[in-house]
């Protein structure tokens, strides 16, 4: 529902269908053949024309130096072809001399392209997509399969996959650096790590990971991960809330223990910032600022 809030709030007429993406796709194709509705997904070539501009922007931001790899999450597979189209166009125009190698990253629970790649591009077989946290790529019968294969073959590309635990751990690891990514980007980051560890991507290679959505669309999966509430998942990078009694002594005891267990780094102004959630108003935060000299005293007294 989080991803539907905006169109609902904007007054769109939204239908909820009891099926998966592949089932919706079949119905949409039938409906648009009967009614004058505009099909706006990756079957529409105009959408691909818009998506290919991301490839042009990558080259522009790198001052027209071509990265060695570009890793893109893939479900319906329009994205990977659009990136190829953008890079190929720039090469034809003489803006660059080559194109990067493309990697399509799929969730292991919805991986028909990965299986096709592993078979040596033998006859393609759709799969029944299983539930994945990377819900936008939970697709077993992608409509752009032929174009994706064409793009990968012509860019000497690779297909990699990520399990649910791998993609969630990758998402948590990225978030810990200050980003706030979606599970689909976690799939692409997992592909990067796997290819780097296997030596396919070299230490000196320049790789671009395409992030396709913002983490605010997937807050529940992040809450479940950091609460360690996902069945059969270790959530090894979880950062759970610490529940503390609402009194000064209890708070100070917890803070002392935390400060002593960490390599505390002060801000340029010599302050350590800690954010504490108020239970009654979870959206509000209180901030405690401890001056460096006070922090030092805490270490000495403890």
What is the secondary structure topology, with strand pairs?
Elements: H1 5-9, H2 21-34, H3 45-51, H4 53-61, E1 69-73, H5 78-92, E2 101-107, H6 112-118, H7 145-154, E3 158-162, H8 164-175, H9 183-197, E4 207-209, H10 219-226, H11 248-261, E5 271-277, E6 285-291, H12 292-301
Parallel strand pairs: 1-2, 1-4, 2-3
Antiparallel strand pairs: 5-6
Helix pairs in contact: 3-5, 4-5, 5-7, 8-9
The number of distinct helices, counting runs of at least 4 residues, comes to 12
Poorly predicted runs: 278-292
Cα radius of gyration in angstroms = 23 Å
Oligomer: single chain
Report the strand count. Answer: 6
Strand order of the largest sheet: 3-2-1-4
First-last Cα distance: 48 Å
Task: Considering the chains and any ligands shown, give keywords for the structure.
302 residues; alpha/beta; four-stranded parallel beta sheet; two-stranded antiparallel ribbon; 6 strands; 42% helix; globular
Question: How do you describe this structure in short?
Answer:
This protein is α/β, with parallel strands linked by helices and 302 residues long.
Question: In words, what does this structure look like?
Answer:
Helix 5 links the parallel strand 1 and strand 2. Helix 4 crosses helix 5 and helix 5 packs across helix 7. About 5% of the residues have low confidence. The chain has a 4-stranded parallel β-sheet, sandwiched between helices. It has a two-stranded antiparallel ribbon with strand order 5-6. Helices cover 42% and strands 11% of the residues. By secondary structure, it is α/β, with parallel strands linked by helices.
């Amino acid at each position: 529902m989080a991803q539907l809030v905006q169109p609902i709030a904007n007054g769109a007429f939204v239908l909820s269908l009891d099926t998966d993406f592949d089932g919706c796709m079949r119905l949409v194709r039938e409906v648009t053949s009967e009614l004058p509705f505009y099909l706006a997904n990756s079957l529409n070539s105009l959408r691909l024309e818009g998506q290919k501009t991301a490839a042009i922007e990558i080259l522009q931001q790198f001052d027209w130096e071509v990265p060695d790899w570009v890793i893109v999450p893939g479900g319906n597979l329009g994205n990977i072809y659009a990136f190829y189209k953008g890079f190929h166009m720039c090469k034809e125009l003489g803006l660059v001399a080559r194109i990067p190698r493309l990697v399509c990253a799929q969730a292991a629970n919805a991986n028909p392209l990965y299986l096709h790649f592993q078979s040596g591009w033998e006859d393609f077989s759709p799969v029944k997509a299983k539930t994945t946290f990377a819900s936008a790529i939970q697709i077993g019968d992608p409509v752009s399969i032929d174009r994706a294969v064409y793009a990968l073959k012509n860019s000497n590309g690779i297909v990699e996959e990520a399990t649910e635990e791998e993609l969630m751990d990758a998402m948590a690891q990225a978030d810990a650096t200050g980003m706030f990514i979606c599970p689909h980007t976690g799939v692409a980051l997992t592909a990067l790590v796997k290819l780097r560890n296997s030596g396919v991507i070299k230490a000196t290679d320049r790789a671009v990971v395409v992030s396709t959505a913002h983490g605010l669309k997937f807050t529940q999966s992040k809450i479940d991960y950091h609460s360690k509430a996902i069945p059969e998942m270790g959530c090894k990078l979880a950062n759970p809330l610490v529940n503390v009694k609402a009194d000064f002594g209890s708070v100070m005891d917890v803070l002392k223990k935390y400060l002593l267990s960490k390599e505390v780094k002060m801000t340029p102004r010599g302050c350590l910032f800690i954010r504490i959630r108020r239970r009654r108003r979870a959206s509000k935060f209180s901030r405690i600022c401890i001056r460096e000299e006070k922090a030092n005293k805490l270490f000495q007294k403890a």
